[in-house]
Input
Amino acid sequence: MPGIIEARHLHFAYTRTPVLEDVSFTVDAGDYIGLIGPNGGGKTTLLKVLLGLEKGQGEVKLFGTPLGEFTDWHKIGYLAQKSPVAQSRFPIAAEEVVLMGLPGFSARIKREELKEVYAAMQQTRTRQFAGKIFNDLSIGQQQRVLLARALVSKPQLLILDEPSTALDAGSREMFFDLLGKLNTQNGTTILLITHDTGEVGKYISKFMYVDKNLVFFGTKEEFCHSQKVAEKLGPFAQHTIDHLHNTHGHCPLGASCRECKHD
Ligand code: ADP
Output
């Protein structure tokens, strides 16, 4: 079985300074990966290189196919940090934004396509905004519409760049809950850039830490015990991750951990 994403020896630079150096990893079907690292560490760039939006050196395969030959883009939903739709002043309805996420959409909208659009909007609780002008919505509402667009083709792989920053607490919970269900119930593979290690910690299966190099890639349990990560983040950052603190027996900080629920 090929991986969903196979990255081998990726190098990338916008100017002379390298942004990514020798990054190799495999994302397996069903993984839910939290991509973390310092600001400017190369996370967004890595996603762009994986999707062919920036051309790096090295090899990328998507669903077993080399990036240059890959055409099944409907298998991938991408929610960018700065969507061109959100930046445009063009008055377009929210439902049309979601419609753009369907493969080969055209001006002649079919009834089944609209059904798909409304189902995706229902999932992100944006159905009520369908006929509203996208730019008139709040940033958080726009983000949920853009998530519906990423979901409408029922992708097998979701790639999300810092999707929760513009959301209020309630929407954020809904957002992570939905992603968690897509992963566990539909088997959707997810690669998510986030600063929220604590919040996503309860949903994700693996962490990837990128700071020009791939500093760490492994399960969240390995992450919490990784000396390399502790050196980068300090010991307590690893221990804000929910799952470890239900039973303090698992936590390497033991009784000194402030997050653990000690008896
Ligand atoms: P992260 O997502 O981890 O914050 P980025 O991938 O956005 O990191 O950025 C990595 C580095 O590349 C940063 O130093 C950033 O300033 C630089 N960079 C990002 N985009 C561009 C660009 N379009 N042109 C030149 N430099 C860029």
